[in-house]
Give the backbone structure.
Amino acid sequence: MWMAKRLLSSLVLKGHYSLFCRPPSSLPEYELRFLHRTFCSRSRIMAAGFDTLHVSVSSEVCQEDSKPLDICYTAEQRAVILQRLNTASESELAQFKLLRGRKAVNIIDYRTRHGPFNDLESVINVPLLKHKSAVTVFNSILNPAEKKERRKGKVHVAKFIRPEVDRALLKDASSIVSIVCGTDKIAWTHMDQSRTVLDWQQAECKSFMKGTYMASDYLDDIFTTISSFPAADFFVVEKSSISPQNTSLYPVMAHLRTVEAMLFALLTPPREPGSPPKVLNMMRTAVGRHFGLMVGESRTSGAQTVKKMMTESVLKQDPWVLFPHDLVLRHRNSFQMSSKNRGEELCDALLQAVAFFELLRE
């Protein structure tokens, strides 16, 4: 042991001809070298021989908006991401983080107008997709989360219907009239249990939000509108999500509450104490969550979803929602992006009716 220590000391004390330099006269076949790491742990770009496909980029790597997205991923990873973005359907895109709802629709619209994505940087040209959100989407494509099987309980009726009614009574309803009021019109959809649209209309209400909100004028417009409603098991009125704390929208909230109260008063028939109500509120946010239209606490337009339903009704043997041919012709141009109104009330009335029957089945 002491001989080994002495030998080691002599090697260190040799100065220039030490462990790290070979003397000119020595003839060893190997020399000692430092071992360097061959990959960057921060970006997780692995060395040759390792699997690089299912590796996600750290959020710190591309957090700067000025950093090109394509350099954050290997060629193999870029190919996988672009292949998924260029070929996936709306429902397939919705499986990845942040792509449920409007963002998935925007990707498909962008592909249709501009052709397939050629590089990752072009993805941030899609509306609602920015640099950081694109990184989250790309990582989700490379490393999709495993779906955990879980037992999904029934959606509690009180979460989307007010006042609360026995679930069995709601499920037994053969048809409903779904009603949505706006700032200048009332739209309604008559739909049966099989999600067949029996009627779908809207009426202009010229007195809405005019002058001093005269109750008599409101009453005339609302009464004229509901006189064309068909018979149904329930009348379902949209419950607005506008908060009383939002003072800038207080006039709109007051208007909607006034119309809602008049609809309840005019549509509620005389009934025995304890009997179930015939007029119900349905939460606007519940419908938005059901169709993936919520962005934070705000609900986006469902026009694209309705247009998809109408298209499937014409092309598919077993469509999601069945529309009579005359209603498709009447409303096929009601949801144009360039139009001033885009038929939002019509759209919302239909989605509310579909959500009513689908949520009761969950």
